[in-house]
Amino acid sequence: MKLKLCTFTAAMALLAAPVLAADPVKIGMITTLSGGGSHLGVDVRDGFQLAIDQEGGTLGGKTIELIVEDDARKPDKATEIADRMVKRDNVNIMTGIIWSNLAIAVVPKVTKSDVVYISPNAGPSLLAGKGCNANYFNVAWQNDNLHEAVGQYVNDKGFKSAFLLAPNYPAGKDALTGFKRFYKGEIAGEIYTKLGQKDYAAEIAAVRDAKPESVFFFLPGGMGIAFLKQYEQAGLKAELPLFGPAFSFDQQILQAVGDPALGIINSSQWNKDIDNDANKAFVADFQKAYGRLPTLYASQGYDAARAIASALEASGDSFDAASFRSSLRKASFDSVRGSFKFGNNNHPIQDIYIREVVKEGDILSNKIVSKAFTDHQDAYAAECKM
Fold this sequence. Notes:
It is a single chain. By secondary structure, this protein is an alpha/beta fold. It folds into two domains: 25-141 and 274-346, 3-Layer(aba) Sandwich (Rossmann fold); 145-268 and 352-382, Response regulator (Rossmann fold, 3-Layer(aba) Sandwich). 41% of the residues lie in helices and 22% in strands. The protein has 13 helices and 14 strands. It has helices at residues 2-16, 38-54, 75-87, 100-112, 125-128, 145-156, 170-182, 201-210, 222-233, 251-257, 277-290, 296-314, 321-329; strands at 25-31, 58-59, 62-70, 93-95, 116-119, 136-138, 161-167, 186-193, 215-217, 242-245, 265-268, 340-342, 348-360, 363-376. Helix 2 (38-54) runs parallel beside helix 12 and helix 9 (222-233) packs parallel to helix 10 (251-257). Mean pLDDT is 93; it is low at 1-20.
């Protein structure tokens, strides 16, 4: 009788014990939160965090432990943080890098460790083509894509010559390569500036001397703010049409530049006026949570989190990298962009739009004026042998 009582008591204790939840999924985010271009990283982080907050601290029903660290736009620091996250923190997934030179330094080492890396921004050609990897996904674009759209637009509008400027780093080289892939006119000049440069007097003088019919520039963050102001101050905006990608015309940059940006045509895979339910909810919720309109960087951080959520929901109770990768490739989530799928190199196949900078009340913003490409895939996918 005593034995039966003990057995019954033990059984009741097991029934009364709380059911232990699966270990949280650890996500390591390395992004730029200080120094030049820090608002890009802040927006990626905030967009990603919004998706977690919408699900009450989870993604796809799995508890999330998000570890965020600042790379200060330094490759050495980024690689050091990545090594620590993989070896000490045992992260399951990594994300967050803004700059292509940092991505090239970090991503191959991370993916070799069988950690899945999901880029919310940087998409260097090396990682899209011969350097593709089953553990590497990009939910934003391949670097060339938005520049290709501008090249096509400038070509279609009949501009017979163009002067090109971009910073001297991997994304800058991809930018001009992308533009020239679709622009068939004369290249009146081509300058690679210093990364982080703020004085463009010499470059503007070179543009004036070359007498092109148009100017294409890729100068993200503070570089774009400085260039746009100096271009207008030099009197060139009124006489020489300027074109660029969304990276120099995001919501925060526009407020810093002001009226010199009005009317300029730029390209993007996202805008706040894309008409779908996911985008409407994202724009409204982001503005409510942070008191500002989202940028394309925020949309990319958000979509990265939503893609992760869809893959986690389709995976088992415990994180398994192979199952997660397989689910992630299906891209079965409602992107704020609308149409979205991964190509064979785990980079997006998506629509890309042409936008114009406009003023809405006292706020500068962008509106979509046309579509440049439908279901556009990058030029490096054929080099990927996965």
